[in-house]
Amino acid sequence: MKMLFLGDVMGRAGRAAVAARLPGLRADWGLDFVVVNGENASAGAGLTPEHAKALLAAGADCLTLGDHAFDQKDMLRFVEAEPRILRPLNYAREAPGKGARVYLDRRGRKVLVAQVLGQVFMKRPFDDPFSAIDAVLRAHPLGGMAQATVVDMHCEATSEKMAMGHWCDGRASLVVGTHTHVPTADAMILAGGTAYQSDAGMCGDYNSVIGMDKAEPMRRFITGMGKERFTPAEGEATLSGVYVEIDDRNGKATRILPIRVGGRLAQAAP
Known about the structure:
Shape: globular
Strand order of the largest sheet: 5-4-3-1-13-14
Radius of gyration: 17 Å
Distance between the termini: 14 Å
Largest sheet: 6 strands, mixed
Number of domains: 1
CATH architecture: 4-Layer Sandwich
Structural class: alpha/beta
CATH superfamily: Metallo-dependent phosphatases
CATH topology: Purple Acid Phosphatase, chain A, domain 2
Number of helices: 6
Strand content: 15-25%
């Protein structure tokens, strides 16, 4: 199985890059399944139903959210109606939607996708992500109930992301971090066969401060005072993420490659 995971889509520039480039990538790379984190796709804060539909139409099989899951209030209702959107497993017990689902890839193979929120340095306390994901993985053993499993670990601390990678090693095909918008240089296959990268990066304009227009973040860092709202940068975006190949027999990863398409961080294709 050939899979692509794209990191946090950031504003209009990120949405435009996904719409323009993902259909071609699916065809050129023979992708079987695509997961896109869309939690910053709408003005940098949350995801509207309209923008969700556009990302799905571009070729995403599943959209994950994050701590901004319900910043756009229409998502409270839409996430119940659209099964291809996942909010975090441990967001809140009363939250609408699901944090994990089994999907079918283009050849009918079962793909489990799950997302959890970390606890370290996050603005609000979330339930334990390790016990939350453990229950899901136990119910969907790799190579049995799922031919492939993807875990989106949405959090600040790289240490917590790495711990999650090792916690899921051998039980997931891919564990990848999102939320910090900066792609890390640690793509690897762990000892038990799980592909891992601490952060996939963002799909957005890297001539920015983690996707936001530079002026206001720099003003706040330099002067300690805010003047305006943060707004997403709107220059040419780079698609950032990971490409993974998975053994159909056991669900273990055989290859992982960081992906940077277009914009300032472009690199070679797989």
